[in-house]
Amino acid sequence: MARTLDEGELIEHWLLIGKEPDLLTGRTGPSKLALALWLKFFAQHGRFPEGRSELPDEAVAFVAGQVKVSAAELGLFDWEGRTAERHRAQIRAFLDFSECTVADAERLTHWLATQVCERERQADRVRQALLQSFTSPSPAR
Fold it and tell me: What separation in angstroms does the CA of 82 have from each of 23, 87, 89?
């Protein structure tokens, strides 16, 4: 059974802040709600949700209230169509996120092999170093 989000978690992770509401300008209904939810999910997890089941009910209701769209309308959103593709591209651009290229992966592999794996062999610590390299300036970038 999924854990219930409390008010503090909703505010911390699901409140639209700063220029985030501007991204929703011109959108209505399911498209507006999905874009807002995907934005907040991506900011937390670094990926898009694979389906409605990954979005906590409390978060859907909380965001729906902010964007003034019924939470039930999320069921009308096409998760695979052109609008969904556009949403993903807009969120990546808004968050200044670029997809990894082959060259990026090769640089990162080299950095992991020469800088991290020479000092550390425990998989969880190597993973932690890898994830930190994505959020802070490092030689891997």
Answer: 17, 9, 11
Overall size of the chain counted in residues: 141
- Answer whether 37's CB lies under 8 Å from 63's CB: yes
Who's near 35: CB < 8 A, 6+ residues apart?
A: 23, 24, 27, 87, 90, 91
- Say how far apart CA 70 and CA 91 lie, in whole Å: 22
Domain borders along the chain are 7-94, 102-135
Splitting the chain (141 residues) into consecutive groups of 10 residues, what average pLDDT does each group show? 84 96 96 98 92 95 98 95 95 87 86 78 77 60 45
pTM, 2 dp: 0.74
Structure-token pair, residue 58: 């409390």
**DSSP string of 34-64, one letter each residue:** HHHHHHHHHHHHSS--SSGGGS-HHHHHHHH
